[in-house]
Amino acid sequence: MLQEHELKTFVEGTTNYFEVAAQQPATVGSPYLVTDGTPAVHDYTGIITITGKREGIVYFTAPRAMLTVLLMKMQESDFSHENMRDLVGEVANTISGNARRDFGSEFIISVPSVVSGEKSEIPLAPGARSFVIPINWRSHSAKLVVSLK
Amino acid sequence: MSVSGADRTRKLLTVGVGTVLIVVMGAVLIAGFRLATQMNANVAALQTASMLQTYPAALAQHLTSLRDRLEARAYAGQALADLRTTVESFDRDLKRLASGPAEGPMQIDQAMMLWRQYAPVLEPVLAFNGQPYIDTDEAGSVLSKEGLEHYADVKRAHLFARENADRLQGMLAAVATGLQQQASAQANRLRLLLSAGVIAALVLAVAAAYFQITRASHERAAREAQEQTRDILRTVKEGFFLLDAQYRIGSVWSDALTRLFGRQNFAGLPFEELLKDLVPASTLATAMKYIKLLWGDRAHENLMKSINPLGQLEVQVDNGRGGRETRYLQFDFHRVMGPKGVKHVLVSVSDITSNVLLARELQESQENASNQLDMVLGVLHVDPVQLSTFLDATEAGLQLINAILKEPARTDAEFRKKLDGLFRELHSIKGEASALNLMSIATRVHALEDAVSELKKRAELSGNDFLPLVLKLDELMAHIKTVRELGTRLATLRESALPARGASQGGGVDPNEEISRTLHSLADRLAAEHHKRFKLAINGLSEMPAAYRATIKDVLIQMLRNAAVHGIEPAEVRRASAKDDIGNVRVDFRRVSDGYELVFEDDGVGLSPEQLKAAAVRRGLITSDEAAEMDTRAAMALIFRPGFSTKDDVSMDAGRGVGMDVVARSIYALGGRIGVSTQPGRYTRFKIALPATEEHASTAVA
Prior knowledge:
In chain A, 35% of the residues lie in helices and 30% in strands.
């Protein structure tokens, strides 16, 4: 069973990113479970795969509008598709760094991969319930999904 | 202890021998120096004495020459001057020899005495300064009157000198011989002294070599011992150090300490400082008190060990990757005794993280096994159909909880709003699970309820606070799934084992009958758990229309719990009130003209309006002023207020403040009414009126 501190590590990794990159902290919304099927995905999704002590995936998925404002806050002027992809990849990378720091060699964490499009298929571990943690930043809301066995 | 004693003896011996040898060598050197100085003086004296030996003869010779010249009337001035020089030289050298540093033999005194006898005869000669001759025409040069006297003095002196020259020379020769003997004796002494010095130097060298060798071997041994200590301290897995009377760490510690605490230097570090950032202030204070106790002479080590507050310390340390991790440290304290009591306290620190985790896993697995067994036993006792219905309802309830969680929330108010909803759902699930005696589920729901209660107390709520809830919810869902699988397997097993019975029952169980059974089973469990004795009588429940079944079941479960916990008194209390030991709880369901009536009654302690008011004030539901103004009827209605309960300790069955409000609300939701009547000490009666259902209407028409 996933432990509270493990879940918190992923959540902190995500909120820290906003704090550092955009100088504006993100808040955590009300978490819930997705018991059947795949949780909803937004326009851009950064995914890390985890093996070792736990198996499954963790992903950060955000709508285009949120990423655009985030890029603006970061003084970026390039709002291209590529840059959006890079941005969610970077968030996933921060989550991965946080997990490496806290869990060490117990978790084997992949290099982040990025998918785009709301209809993207995210390969969830079969039989694992997913924890969905809304990440609210300004008026926007993204999701952190932790699906580990 | 023995090593340091031997070391001290060795040092003292080295210093003693060294001092003796230095004193001896110093004495040899000083004596040698003095001897050499004396010998030097002796040689000079010997030279003088040798030279002086020639003087008596020279004196006689000068006097002979002077006499001859006076007789020949020749010039005598030069001869007299030579005599004077010789006498002066002799006198001076002899006096110097007599008073010189060299120890003159006794002959020198004799020579001096003899020389003093020369004086009366020599003085007139030497004192002469007149003209010895006068020239006459007839006789030529003749001795003058004073010349004649002078001549006579010279002759006398000459005679004396000739007579005594040999004696004086002999005396001086004896002096020289004496001096020579002295010099020779001194030379012998010097030789002896030098030999002694050489021997002493050799002894010193040998002693120095010996001590050097023993010192080197001792140093080697000490170095080896030091290296061994170092190796032990470097290799040992525990952190070791000594604490002094000021609770400061000594200058030596094992390398493990560096790893355990992630710092390099510990020398002189106060123990308090070491723990300060790792433990809460209260633990730190206890630990420091404990350390102080250890320094007391009366502290018993084994007893002290049993009260060690640092036996298992949870600390957060740097994990070497920039993060923190939880480790468990065990501190052990051993007193090091000296002659004056406790000298140091030896502290050993071990990382027992793996042991603690292993023990925890073991305990968890034991608990799991026990829980599994409980679960199997629990499931075995429940009718498969009933179980399936319950699990369906529970899953639906959990989905509802998840739906509540899923509602977006950003503000404290939005988060807080969720809590009441969550609570009500959980409470209802728990009630059903308890009724069916499915304790593995009830315990989990209870834990979730606890978590929700905790959140209610928080000042500010955020999504982070809900993470533990959602984890527990996940765990509960997984557990429900396991119970369902187990139930299915057991049902299959039962069907295959008892095909005949299954066939004979055919149509299955009447749902209302099922509720009766559930209530009876719950009553038995409640009676056992709360040490109460009561009979449950249920009448007319078969009349209950299907539309009310789920709600009424929840309502009855809740009221039964309240009756068992709050209503029925313990047997001894009942006896004291002249009541039968065994209490009565009655459920009557019946049709009435405009619908249905459900009466739930217990012959317990009843409700006291004053107690109800007091409890409501305690919970902040009403103010004391409001309570004072409340009539009995209003006071009774308090039990239907959200958050009301008169039981202070929270057990699984009552006392959470959710119960009768849920009951009342669900009755209102069915379009019904609920009322309560009571007589303190005699009974509590709930009367519920429910409207007619379509089912009822159609039956009535028929």
